[in-house]
Queue: 2 jobs
Job 1
Amino acid sequence: MPCNCCEITDNAFSEDEARSELRNYRKRGPAKQTKLILQAIRSLGLRNAELLDIGGGIGVIHHELLEDVADKVTHVDASSAYLKEAKAEAARRRHEERVHFIHADFTNVASELPKADIVTLDRVVCCYPDFRRLLKAAAEHSQRALAFTYPRETWYLRVGFRVMNFFQKLRKDPFRVFLHPVAEMDALLKREGFERVVLRRLFVWEMALYQRTAG
Ligand SMILES: C[S@@+](CC[C@H](N)C(=O)[O-])C[C@H]1O[C@@H](n2cnc3c(N)ncnc32)[C@H](O)[C@@H]1O
C-alpha cells in the first residue's frame, strides 16, 4: 500500500507531547498497559534477548527490558519527536550503544530489518489503518514472542473513537484512530504460527502475549 503514514503519524505526535510523556514516565514509571506487556514478557524468563519495539514512542519498553531481559534493541518509530526523547533517555541510562533507532513506517523498512526474539507494539495498531500489513510484518520478525496492546472492542470506545475522528476531520488533520477487530488480529497471528498465551484487560486497553509454536 503506498502510504504517507509516516508523515501523517509524525505530524500527530508533537515534541511537547513527547516531552510530557517522558516527564510522566520519569515521575510515575510505565503506564498501566505498558506494565502488562513488561510483566508478560518477563514471565517468559528470557535473558540476553533481542527486542524489536515497533512504535515504541519514548522507548519505555526498552528502557525497562534492557535492565534484565534484553541485550539489544531495534526501535522503529514513525514519530521523530518521540524518537528524540527516546534517544535522550537511552543516553541518560547509558543504553545508547544497545539501541538502534530507526525513523520510519515499520511496514516500509521491515524487509531490511533482522528478526528479533521479542516484538512489541504498545498502543500502535490503533494508529495505523492497515493492521493486517503491520501485524503480519511484525509477526514475521518475531522468533519467539510478540506482545501488543490495542483498544478493546467496546461500545464506549466505538463512540469515543468516532467522536475523536470527527474532530480530526473538522481540523483537517488526516491522522485517525482505529478500533481493529480483535478476532481478525488473533486469527492473523495464529496463521503466522503463534498462539495466545496471556490476555489481560484494562478499561481501554487489552494486552495479548503470543508465543511462536511453529517455524
Ligand atoms: C500512541 S503512540 C504509543 C507510543 C508507545 N508505544 C507508548 O505506548 O507509549 C503510537 C506510536 O506508534 C508509532 N507508529 C504508528 N504506526 C507506526 C508504524 N507503522 N511504524 C512505526 N511507528 C508507528 C507512532 O509514531 C507513535 O510513536
Job 2
Amino acid sequence: MLFSRILRLPSNDMAIDLGTVNTVVYVRGKGIVLNEPSVVALETIDGVRRVKAVGRDAKLMMGKTPAHIQAVRPLRDGVIADIDVAEQMIKHFIDRAHGGPSRLGRHPEIVVCVPSGSTSVERRAIRDAATNAGASRVWLIEEPMAAAIGAGLPVTEPVGAMVVDIGGGTTEVAILSLHGLAYSTSIRVGGDKMDDAIAAVVRRKHNLMIGETTAERIKHEIGSALPPRGEAVTIRVRGRHLSAGMPQEIFISEAEIADALAEPVSHIVGAVRTALENTAPELAADIVDRGIVLTGGGALLKRMDEALSNATGLPVAVADDPLTCVAMGAGRALEDLDYRGVLSEA
Ligand SMILES: Nc1ncnc2c1ncn2[C@@H]1O[C@H](COP(=O)(O)OP(=O)(O)OP(=O)(O)O)[C@@H](O)[C@H]1O
Ligand SMILES: [Mg+2]
C-alpha cells in the first residue's frame, strides 16, 4: 500500500503550503520548520540569471532593486505563474527545511497543498516543480481540507464543518464532512486584491503612487473589513506624487481604507453566502450549530469575522495561528493514518 510506505519512512518527509504570499514547511516529527515570504530575488549578470536571495531577504528587496536585480513572486492568484523560478524557490526551501542540501540524504516524499479549484495543468506544474526539487513522490491535499484539519475541525466525522481560508491570492470556501469536500469554491480574491484596492484609492484620491509593500503595511496597520466606529485613526504614508513626480507624504484615514476594502471584502462575503445557499439541509444545520472558522492571513484583517457574521447570522471564529493552519493540517495528514484518505497522489 502506498500509504503504509509513507508512514514507514523516517523524518525526511514534509508538507509544504506553497502560498501566493508565504510558504510554510512542516517536517515529519518536527512540525513547522520554515515560514517565509514566497519571493525570489534574481540577479542577471552577462545575460545569465541566477538566484540572489529567497524568502525574507528577497522580500526586503521588493520594489527597491537596482536594474540588474529583480525581486519576483513566482505565484499569483494561488497558482504558479513562473515555473522555473517556483522550482528554484521550492528547492531552496526544501534544502533549508533540512538544514542545508548536504543533510538531505534520500529524497523525501512531499505533500503539497493545492487550491480546491486548481486545474490538472496547475496540479501537474506543482508536481513537476516538487519532483525537480528532489521529491521522490508527491501527494496533493486540497487547501481547505488542510486548513480544516489544521484548525481542528472534525473532518473525519459525519458532521458538517465550514472553513474559509483567506490567503494572499485566493479565498477558499468549503463545507467538509467525512474526509471530503461537500462543497468548495475558490475565488481569486484575497490579501493581494486588498493591497491593490488600497494602492488604487491612494492613487485616485491623493495622487500618490505607492508600492505593494506599502499598501500591505497600510492594510496591516489600519485596514478593516467594516467602516470605523467613532474616532478614526490616521497614518502617514509616503510615495511618489503622480504629477509632480516627487517623493511626498500624505495622511490617510481608516475610513478611506475601509472604503477601499469594501469591494474585495464583499466578494468574500458573497462567496460565503453562495456556499451556504448551496448546502444540503443537514449539513447547514450542523453549520448553524458550529459556525464558520476562518484561516489564512486575511482572517487577521480587523473585523473580518464580524463582517461575515453580520452577513450570515452565524458565529464566526478565527483559528489559532491562521497563517500556519494549512501547513499544520497538511503535516497532520502526512503523519496521522486517520487522515490518509484526504491525500491523493499527484
Ligand atoms: N494582520 C493582518 N491584517 C490583514 N491582512 C493580513 C494580516 N496579516 C497577514 N495578512 C495578509 O494575509 C495574506 C497572506 O496570507 P497567507 O499566508 O494565508 O496567504 P498564502 O497562503 O500565501 O496565499 P494563498 O493561500 O492565496 O496562496 C497577505 O495578503 C497578508 O497581507
Ligand atoms: Mg494559503
